[in-house]
Design brief:
Blueprint lengths: L1 H20 L9 H7 L3 E5 L7 E3 L4 E5 L4 H16 L5 E2 L12 H14 L2 H10 L9 H11 L3 H11 L5 H8 L3 H9 L7 E3 L9 E4 L3 E4 L4 E3 L3 E7 L2 E6 L3 E6 L5 E7 L5 E2 L17
Parallel strand pairs: 1-3, 5-7, 6-12
Antiparallel strand pairs: 1-13, 2-3, 2-4, 7-10, 8-11, 9-10, 11-12
Length: 288
């Protein structure tokens, strides 16, 4: 009963925060842009043991730069919960992937993060646009959705299972047997270093965010404008691009499909608002 009440509280707060930011519940978000739109400073911090921080007096959240992209986004949303519920300043030094910790404030923050990043209406809208039936979700479909929501593959599956109750436990475990590495191999016929974002023809509302060295799989026929990313190959599944240096490029496809491709330094440290600024001397490139 305590968890159910925490879930209701988290859900209501996530909806209210989106309404304050004037972001529809059907839309995915970039959580860093979302936070900054609310006047909250996002800062990326190095350190292998650092797992996130909320600084109450500064209206700032601190995100670990050395963690995977999906984990960073979830951490930011988790720390936003501490800000929203006025929990007070805290430093996360432990992994809070587990939602069974006996700390109500942490459980609440995890639930809030899931609802903020993956609202029920957005899950339905984005899956309907792709012709995906969530109760018969495939691993590839789950990966595509996790990319659109900016979260980790496993994070999406746990949210669908425990918060939304849209897949059963056996289905979740079956999907978890397929790893993101397996999916990268299937899509690219080879494994790649860094993160792979799958931005299909239904991708909308958010930019394609990469770090130097990351890859993205885009629809056939896409043309890149800019120097921060380059096309490296083409497969039956689409065009593969790689992030080369910090900056912002544009991917333009057929019809009215287009997306910004924003590239930051690998394990960027600094204020979030500056993460895509080009280097004056182009020193941060893939070749370096």
């Amino acid at each position: 009963m305590i968890r159910q009440e925490l879930a209701r509280t988290a859900l209501r707060a996530s909806i209210e925060m989106r309404r304050t930011a004037k972001i529809p519940l059907e839309d995915p978000i970039c959580v860093y842009d979302f936070a900054e739109g609310l006047g909250i400073d996002v800062r990326f911090v190095g350190g292998a043991s650092f797992a996130g921080m909320f600084a109450k007096g500064m209206d700032a959240v601190f995100v670990p730069s050395e963690r995977p992209a999906g984990r960073r986004a979830f951490t930011c949303a988790h720390e936003l919960a501490h800000w929203r519920f006025n929990h007070g300043e805290r430093v996360e030094t432990l992994d809070f992937d587990r939602d069974d910790r006996d700390i109500p404030e942490e459980i609440l923050a995890n639930l809030f993060a899931g609802y903020l990043l993956m609202p029920t209406r957005a899950l339905k809208a984005l899956s309907d646009e792709r012709g995906i039936k969530l109760r018969s979700l495939t691993a590839l479909d789950a990966y595509r959705l996790s990319c659109q929501f900016g979260v980790g593959y496993t994070t999406l599956l746990k949210h669908l299972r425990w918060s939304e109750r849209l897949i059963d436990h056996a289905h979740m475990e079956e999907l978890q047997r397929t790893t993101p590495k397996d999916i990268r191999l299937k899509l690219l016929d080879r494994d790649t270093p860094g993160h792979l974002v799958v931005a299909d023809a239904q991708w909308r509302k958010v930019a394609i965010d990469l770090e130097v060295g990351d890859h993205a799989l885009l629809p056939h026929g896409v043309v890149l404008n800019g120097i921060s990313a380059r096309c490296v190959s083409e497969s039956q599944h689409g065009i593969v691009i790689q992030a080369i240096c910090p900056g912002i490029s544009q991917a333009v496809g057929s019809g009215d499909w287009a997306s910004m491709v924003r590239v930051s330094r690998k394990q960027y440290v600094g204020r979030g608002t500056f993460r895509h600024l080009e280097d004056d001397d182009n020193e941060t490139t893939l070749d370096n």
